[in-house]
Request: fold
Amino acid sequence: MKTKKLVVYQDASIYWKEHIVELLDRGDKLGLQVWGGRGMHNIPGATLKGMFDFFGDQPCAYINYTQLQAGVNVFKQTPFVVRSILEPWAKCVVELDCFCPNCTRGHRDCSSRNNTLHKCHRQVQCGTKHKQ
Reply:
């Protein structure tokens, strides 16, 4: 990560169109560029408790925040972005206790809407919870 100015994460479902330059420019100017999302789950609803434990966080601190879309994210390599977002995210990906803490097949389905905490686990969106 040290040799490039921007880090881009993109889901395999994303196809580049003419607006890519604008997206990269905004990421460079603002430090990061992520997509919001309508109707997304609140963070503790779609994140297993083990991930909060891994980061030493309490789920209740995130109850009023919704997850972000993981489609395309652009990060400028500033000290704040690297320390606050990229390093924790990269660490989480390689630690099973973080990325998928005690996951079962039942935790994959986040389609139902209710207020239950930790009812499912959306790995990529959960790992990016520190962006908020």
